Amino acid sequence: MAAHTHDASHAPEVAQQASTNVLDTGLLLRWFVGILVFVVALVIIVSVYFRSVASRVRAERVETTMSSREANVAKAAAEAVLGVNGQPATYSWSDAQAGTVQLPLEQAMRKVVDQRSGGKGQ
């Protein structure tokens, strides 16, 4: 068996391998801080965006619901003029000069049936 001799020419390679296995903690720290700053900035941006969208949706709901006092007053006035579901509750003048009146739909249908049947309605 041949004896293995340690050659001096291999010494720089061993020293170079040993230096590459050393951890650069400064580089790791910079990467950690960079990633941390990125994540914090992303969370802040997403929360600001969510609040703006949520407030816009909330404002749209408030504007379209009939919960305000003005909307309830307007609804009551419209029901007084047009009746519930757009049908007048009683007889009223639509245009007095033209001689037209508004009447509930069911009563109008009964009058038409009476007229068509020659007054022989139920």
Spell out the key features of this protein:
122 residues; mainly alpha; two-stranded antiparallel sheet; 2 strands; rod-shaped
Overview of the molecule:
This protein is mainly alpha-helical. It contains 4 helices and 2 strands, in the order αααββα. It has helices spanning 11-20, 25-64, 69-82, 105-116, and strands at residues 92-95, 100-102. A two-stranded antiparallel sheet has the order 1-2. A hairpin with a 4-residue loop joins strand 1 and strand 2. The longest helix has 40 residues, at 25-64.
Q: Count of DSSP E strands?
A: 2
Q: What summary fits the major beta sheet?
A: 2 strands, antiparallel
Helix content: 55-70%
| Outline type | rod-shaped
Number of alpha- plus pi-helical segments: 4
What is the average per-residue confidence, as pLDDT, rounded to a whole number? 76
Poorly predicted segments = none
Strand content: 5-15%
- Sketch the topology as an H/E string, one letter per element: HHHEEH
Q: Cα distance, first to last residue?
A: 129 Å
Spatial strand order of the main sheet: 1-2
Question: SS-based structural class?
Answer: mainly alpha
For the CA atoms, what is the radius of gyration? 44 Å
